[in-house]
Structures are given as structure tokens and as C-alpha cells.
Amino acid sequence: MVPMVQVRSTIRVVLVDDEALVRAGLRMILEGDATIEIVGEAGDGVAALAVVDDTHPDVVLMDIRMPQMDGLAATEQMLRAHPSTKVVVLTSYDVDDLVPRALRLGATGYFLKDTPPQELVEAVHRIADGDTMLSQSAIGHLVDAVTRQAPGAGGPDATRLADALTERELSVARAISRGLSNAQIATELFVSVTTVKTHVSRILGKLGVVNRVQIAACVQRDAR
């Protein structure tokens, strides 16, 4: 009997950036991975919406500053029409004040345009798998910005996390606030990645937030 070989599904990606050279560089990097397929490109938010409507990608790499329609407006409209699509913000800056707004609109995370190629490929896999990729050098700024811009995020009960979450969920929330990925949290807590994903989903629901940065903001407020 021939053993069954598990075939990894292809991750369908759309690249959105107003600079053709940036798109070409991203394409070259990502197409080096046999499990990633670039299914479309766009140079502005308006074109991006049309491309995503046509291609239904798993992940969209979205430049945040573009002509005609910027990444914020495009992200908001895109996720309203395609809620299962993962939108990840591209930026040239470690600290970009538009990034927290994009995350609050539902973007899965963000990374810098000069991210090393292998890290970029790994990030796309993490994001497609339901994880979040945040710039480690700027996570503190992101949490502070989200807390300032949306001080009520998470609802009135979210400031007492011990009352809202189980002990294990609280451990996961604190690990998220340190910028750990699902795989890193699983290793630290000696559980499976699937179990971590389940905890993250429950934390999001209990705190009434939409992404991991907002979870981290709740943890930061709770510690004050």
C-alpha cells in the first residue's frame, strides 16, 4: 500500500503597491516558495478592490499610502466584501500612525517593505494559517496608539481580564501582548497550535475586539 502524501494547499496572494518595482520585488521573493501563488497585482486601492473581486485571494499585501484610494479605505471596503481575506499592511516606516487605524479596520497585521525575504515568506504562511504578523520593533507603539485611539476597545469588562478570561486564556493574552506568534505560544505553553488558535478566538469574542493588537492593548490597560 502506497503511503498517502499530504499536499500543502496553495496560498493565493494579491500584491497592492503604487510602485511597480516594489511589486516586482515582492513577487520575486514570494514566488520562490512553491506553495505561494501571486494571483493578481494592483497599483492603487480602487484597482485592488477589482482584482480581489476577480481572484478571491487568501492574503492581500496592501500598501498603506497610495493615490486614488489609500490602503485604509481599500482595506475597509475589501474586508466588508470579503471578510475571510487576510489583509496585511505594507509600510516603509517602523512607526506609521496609519497602521493602528488599519488594524482597527480589520487588517491582520503589518510588516516593513524591507523585511528579509525568508521572514516575508514565513509571514505569509503564518497569516494564511490564521496568525498575525506584527513588527516586533514597533509593537509597543502600536499598542499605545490603539489604546489612545480606542480607549474603550474591549468593552467595560475588559479592564479586568481575570474576570473575563480563564487562566489559560489570560496566559495566551499576555503572550500575545509580547508579540509571540501562535507557534511560539504553543511552544511556551506546551499545547498545540490548534489549541492556541481556539484560545485566541475565544479571547477575541470575550473581549469584543477584532485583532491581536487590541488584545495586547487590553492586557496593557489591565496591568496599569
What does this molecule look like?
- By secondary structure, this protein is of the alpha/beta class.
- It contains eleven helices and five strands; from the N terminus they run βαβαβαβαβααααααα.
- It has helices at residues 20-30, 45-55, 71-81, 98-104, 117-128, 139-149, 161-164, 167-177, 182-189, 193-207, 212-222, and strands spanning 11-16, 36-42, 59-63, 86-91, 109-112.
- Strands 2-1-3-4-5 form a five-stranded parallel β-sheet, sandwiched between helices.
- α8 (167-177) packs across α10.
- The longest helix is centred in the C-terminal third of the chain and has 15 residues, at 193-207.
- It starts with 10 loop residues before the first strand and ends with a helix.
- The relative contact order is 0.11.
Radius of gyration: 18 Å
Q: Which structural category do the helix and sheet elements fall into?
A: alpha/beta
Rounded mean pLDDT is 83
Shape field:
globular
Could you tell me how far the N terminus lies from the C terminus, measured between alpha carbons in angstroms? 61 Å
Give the count of helical stretches. Answer: 11
Spans of at least 5 consecutive residues whose pLDDT stays below 50 are 1-7, 151-159
**Largest β-sheet summary:** 5 strands, parallel
Q: Roughly how much helix do the residues carry, as a percent range?
A: 40-55%
Percent strand = 5-15%
Elements, N to C (H/E): EHEHEHEHEHHHHHHH
| Number of E-type strands | 5
In what order do the strands lie side by side in the largest sheet?
Answer: 2-1-3-4-5
Name some characteristics of this structure.
224 residues; alpha/beta; 5-stranded parallel β-sheet; 11 helices; 5 strands; disordered N terminus
